[in-house]
Amino acid sequence: xxxxVRSLFANALSGHKNWPEQWPDATPKKSYDVIIxxxxxxxxxxxxxxxxxxxxxxxAVIEKGWLGGGNTGRNTTIIxxxxxxxxxxRLYDHAVDLWxxxxxxxxxxxxxxxxxxxxxxxxxxxxxxxxRHIHANRLNGVDNQWLTPEQSKEFCPPxxxxxxxxxxxxxxxxxxxxxxxxxxSVAWGYARAxxxxxxxxxxxxAVTGIKRDANGAVEGVETEKGFIAAKKIxxxxxxxxxIIMNMAGLDFPLESYPLQALVSxxxxxxFPCVVMSNSVHAYISxxxxxxxxxxxxxxxxxxxSQRGALHIIEHTLAAICEIFPIFKRMRMLRSWGGxxxxxPDRSCILGKTPVQGLYVNCGWGTGGFKATPGAADLLAxxxxxxxxxxxxxxxxxxxxxxxxxxxxxxxxxxxH
Amino acid sequence: xxxxxxxxxxxxxxxLEFRYAGEAHIARPEDPDALxxxxxxxxxxxxxxxxGTHFERWVHAHGCAKFxxxxxxxxxxxxxxxxxxxxxxxxxxxxxxxQS
Lengths: 416, 100
Ligand SMILES: Cc1cc2nc3c(=O)[nH]c(=O)nc-3n(C[C@H](O)[C@H](O)[C@H](O)COP(=O)(O)OP(=O)(O)OC[C@H]3O[C@@H](n4cnc5c(N)ncnc54)[C@H](O)[C@@H]3O)c2cc1C
Ligand SMILES: [Zn+2]
Fold this sequence. Notes:
- The structure holds two protein chains of two kinds.
- Chain A is of the alpha/beta class.
- Helices cover 30% and strands 23% of the residues of chain A.
- In chain A, the strands form four sheets. Chain A has an eight-stranded mixed sheet.
- Chain A is globular.
- The two termini of chain A are 37 Å apart.
- Chain B is an alpha+beta fold.
- Chain B has a single domain, classed as Folate-binding superfamily (Folate-binding fold, 2-Layer Sandwich), CATH 3.30.2270.10.
- Chain B has helices at 37-44, 92-99; strands at residues 3-6, 11-14, 19-23, 53-59, 67-73, 79-84.
- Chain B has a four-stranded antiparallel sheet. Chain B has a two-stranded antiparallel sheet with strand order 1-2.
- The chains are: A alpha/beta, B alpha+beta.
- The A-B interface holds A 240, 242-243, 251-256, 300-305, 309-311, 344, 400-403 and B 1-2, 15-16, 19-20, 37-38, 40-42, 44-51, 54, 56, 72, 74-77.
- The complex binds flavin-adenine dinucleotide and zinc ion (ZN).
- The site of flavin-adenine dinucleotide has 40 residues of chain A, from α2, β13 and β17.
């Protein structure tokens, strides 16, 4: 069923009791053309684009828990594309292009809101490096502009720009095209659209092994619901990606860390944009429900526990109170964590692997929500054509051997 | 916040006193010039990243300032044991005994 004013009206008359389920809970078939491991936004999106754009409809997405229950449902939903290097600029801008028409395409409101992302500079080094970013972005056709402290305050009134602070605001880099989207809707919208095109979504079914033939090519996956055959497997399992790669005998340059976020009690609209501050380390926006959504930095140690330590949150809130004293008396409602897969250069690995028929999309670490439509499309392309798209071609596993890194870690220094 | 036992100070102290310092027992190459690109990649970038038992380095930054090693479970975050640098990696039996 298409969602429209008409279907809304018709269902209102029957008390909203007859809405069809958005996607059926599939039982696995014996074999598929393509299996995607991990039903986050990236994996569900890849299945959707395989079916809608690349003509491969015999596809299953296999998920260990519930769809969207990984980092897709745990992130602070910041979407931006003002990355430093040419490769990244193209990658993230491709995603932002796709975000633009996504709600219409999926017939599902992902609530993409281009309210602007303002990154604050607090010292001379910040000012210089942001201006360098702005110039690099301009050359790449990516929007990004410099705001003075006064202009920053005008753009984001709750900001304290007084010069008496320990970390005064010395200006900011604003990407107007950037913003936020509703994370759950992204997973649900892709799931529904993919299911309508015949994709099977299999939940509560962890992949426990990858079977390979005598030549080493993949034959299928072992799962909690038995063996499922496929000649092509795309792994998009975020924090658990290296575990699945190990199942195929591959060692990966990944480490999984806790990343936490929290929300406040809901209040009336007060915060019009997204603000990030790398130096004092906090980022904040306000959801349409009214909660302030606040992101912290990663905990320092490896972990799959999907939770972190309280002192990280304390530190983040101290930073928020420093920049926005107006929020000092807000109460926080809840906090949570996810396991993020971090590469040494903080860029993703998206492409083929040394194992025939095995494709990977991982290493998005602390910043892959913004890339969801782009990564999904490029993973689907790579699987369908058995070769990377020019946009993801630089993001190979081999770059860690050749040394041709895409070092966004050095460029940004912190979380995305 | 985790409590971590520093094997030098022999005291359990809050995590805030410590800095994590990556996977343990990754030996610097004896003869760097002899390494192939693959071997360099392995030494520099490949990490085991296991679900479960992990060998890792910590430094008691706001205490004795000494580095030491630890065995920790990455699913529960529980420390199994800590030991001084230079001591051998605990065997699976030693770890199992500590965990029981
Ligand atoms: C607190 C927090 C804040 C963040 N903030 C932002 C932000 O503001 N902006 C941004 O761009 N990014 C942000 N991120 C990062 C972003 O969430 C991720 O990069 C992105 O969502 C990854 O999407 P995914 O679909 O690949 O992963 P996921 O949604 O994690 O999907 C992977 C799926 O694989 C499944 N899986 C794992 N192992 C198996 C198995 N063995 N078998 C079957 N299935 C398996 C998991 O259950 C999971 O559902 C944040 C992350 C966190 C944790
Ligand atoms: Zn000590």
